[in-house]
Amino acid sequence: MTLNVIGKTKLWFTVSAVLLGIGLFGMVSNGITKGKIMNFGVDFTGGTVLNLRFGSPVPLSDLRGILTNYGKGESVIQRTEGNDIIISTDPLSNEERTKIVDDIKAKFPSVELLEADTIGPVVGKELRSQAFWALLLATAGILIYVAFRFEVKYALAAVLALLHDAIITVGLIALLWRAVDTSFIAAILTILGYSINDTIVIFDRVRENLQRPGSGKRPLSDVVNEGVSQTMARSINTVLTVLFMNAALLVFGGATIKDFALTLLIGFTCGAYSSIFVASPLVVIFDKWEKSRT
Amino acid sequence: MIIISVVVVSVIIIQNMPLTLGLDLQGGSRLVLEAYDTDTVKVNDDSVAGVVAVIRNRIDALGVTEPMIQRKGRSQVIVELPGIKDPDRAIKVIGDTAQLEFVEAEWSPGDEKVLTQKKITEYYGKNARLDKVKEYRNGQVIYEKPIILKATAITGADLKGAWPGIDQYGNPVVDIEFNSKGSDLFAGVTSRNVGKPLAILLDNKIISAPNVREPITGGRAQISGNFNIDEVQDLIVKLKAGALPIPVRIIENRIIGPTLGKDSIDKSKFAGLVGLAFILFFMITYYRYPGFLADIALAIYCALTVAVLALLHTTLTLPGIAGFLLSIGMAVDANVIIFERLKEELQSGKTVRMSIEVSFKRAFAAILDSNVTTLIAAATLFWLGTGTIKGFAVTLSVGIVASMFTSLTITHMMLEMSSDAKIIDKPESKLLYRGFFK
């Protein structure tokens, strides 16, 4: 059974455009309503995060009162799981932080400090440039490797599909207003590295089919359709096993790992889709361009 | 045989070399310090290396087990203190410059309202400046006394030792002893300044300014201030380790309580088991007998990966655990690719044995290419790596390489053996088939 994936290219690209549009809309509307396109965490912006666990529910207004005494009334105070509360402020000095925690402890003796992170603005700036270079380097590395093992048009198609996955993931995370920190960058890089696997399995099959005698005369779209159909089951199953683990982490994994798992879940799903419905049609399009020029 | 020995060796390694838990899992403190230029010292290789050496001495004196101190970039030093009980105190001990100075001084006839800097320079010399000595009672400042600081006579560099002591009122103090150069200088200063104060400064703050009653020649002195016993201990640690050659500021400071790590381990363990169960179940129901073999290979994969991580002395972090769990999901990918191929080859009418050989051979290129690209991304991550993310990159990379080994060799061997043992001998065997795309 051969599926006609290439014939419906317009449909697939429309779906992708809609997803990209939703992501972009999320970022733009965040920019307008919240002042920044994504919920950048202290890793990027600099600041202090206090993760506190209380023995019983506490009114957030009491905590805000204590923070106001130190001129930090504008801080973000959020409940996470159970009676855990996260407070994000501008960078606090060691003394300020100790005093605030002591004040909270005086009012709520059951409190336990789970985590306290203070990141200076310099670090955030470094991280931003590092993240940029890491993404660029990973993309370039993958581009070169695929171009070397296949052809340039395959490499371009694969990398465009990857960027498609990365942008949609970033957009949806922005829309969902999830905190973005160092592990988000790690998640995006992992998505780049893993999502290309399916693309390569398809391309590998196309390459193999092209080497069969007589296949040179067939239009590339037929060969690609055949390759996609032959590899459909493995494309789905490979991602499925990873998604099982991912879903388990998302549901049971605890607050610190949830956003990471969610990012990967979106990215991997997107990657499975784009391997079949974005990368493969792109190869056919690039091939047509190549032929029309000669 | 090979399979059994891989498993046995892995188990032995895991039992004998437990993985060290990262800061995020066992709790502790992570600091990033940045050295900065002053008028007298500039950030360079020597001064930052000096900072590392002094900090190492101070941490050793604090008695932290397995601290990590390393340089990052031109001017930064990363310090990780696993399992530390009182991080705030450690931060003070590590980050203070601890420049001790004995400064010749004179009680000032008035405060800044009457004395301008111009007058001070005129009366007391070029480097003289006005400061205040705080007098404490029960921890409260009771009054401030203006003092003129003239010239630094001795620094902490000329100390030989420091001990905790008690002054005549029973307050904790620090007893110090100078080296021979310091002793001479101290004798000179005290004989020149009988009847005048000698200010003791730590990081440009006056601790106290006792009046010199007589020349002191023994090379011993006492630093009194408004200290409690902990502060005396910490000051001794700092004085013994010496001053930082260049001041530093804290640009990153993470404190992780012990509860959070335990929480994370328990939760990710449970999540991992659930995910693993799903994968094992899926492989058996979808791929039947080969799926069962892949599950065995997956179990070996888990043992092998943990063993390699232990051998590499990897520090296990929360992202590291996540990376390992994800790699379990990725580890069966190669087997999925091979088994799908196997189905096709069997459908094309080849014998079981032939199909096994062909599918492993044909699938190899795809498996290699897809894993190399993931490794490229993991390598970039390692390079980006701040502490915990590095852990993720390492477990992911080790996992990818180990999974190529288990799925390409171990599953292959087991399938061949099964075919030789006639467990799977006919292409239409019920053990092999359950395709959606028949």
Please, could you describe this protein's structure?
- The complex is a heterodimer of chains A (294) and B (438).
- Chain A has 294 residues and is of the alpha+beta class.
- Chain A has two domains: 6-38 and 123-293, Multidrug efflux transporter AcrB transmembrane domain (Multidrug efflux transporter AcrB transmembrane fold), CATH 1.20.1640.10; 47-119, Alpha-Beta Plaits, CATH 3.30.70.
- Chain A is 71% helix and 10% strand.
- Chain A is built from nine helices and six strands.
- Chain A has helices at 9-33, 42-45, 60-69, 94-107, 121-149, 152-175, 182-211, 220-252, 255-293; strands spanning 39-40, 47-53, 76-79, 84-89, 112-119, 179-180.
- In chain A, the strands form two sheets. In chain A, strands 3-4-2-5 form a four-stranded antiparallel sheet. Chain A has a two-stranded parallel sheet with strand order 1-6.
- In chain A, strand 3 (76-79) and strand 4 form a beta hairpin.
- The longest helix of chain A has 39 residues, at 255-293.
- The mean pLDDT of chain A is 88.
- Chain B has 438 residues and is an alpha+beta fold.
- Among the domains of chain B are: 2-10 and 257-420, Multidrug efflux transporter AcrB transmembrane fold (Up-down Bundle); 100-228, 2-Layer Sandwich (Gyrase A, domain 2), CATH 3.30.1360.
- Chain B contains twelve helices and 14 strands.
- Chain B has helices spanning 2-16, 23-26, 45-62, 87-95, 117-124, 180-192, 229-241, 258-311, 318-331, 333-347, 352-384, 387-420, and strands at residues 20-21, 28-35, 68-72, 76-82, 100-107, 129-137, 140-155, 159-166, 172-178, 198-202, 205-208, 220-223, 248-256, 315-316.
- A five-stranded antiparallel sheet of chain B has the order 6-7-5-10-11. A four-stranded antiparallel sheet of chain B has the order 3-4-2-13. A three-stranded antiparallel sheet of chain B has the order 8-9-12.
- In chain B, strand 3 (68-72) and strand 4 form a beta hairpin.
- The radius of gyration of chain B is 34 Å and the shape is rod-shaped.
- Chain B starts with a helix and ends in an 18-residue tail after the last helix.
- The chains are: A alpha+beta (294), B alpha+beta (438).
- At the A-B interface, strand 5, helix 5, helix 7, helix 8 and helix 9 of A face helix 4, strand 13, helix 8, helix 9 and helix 10 of B.
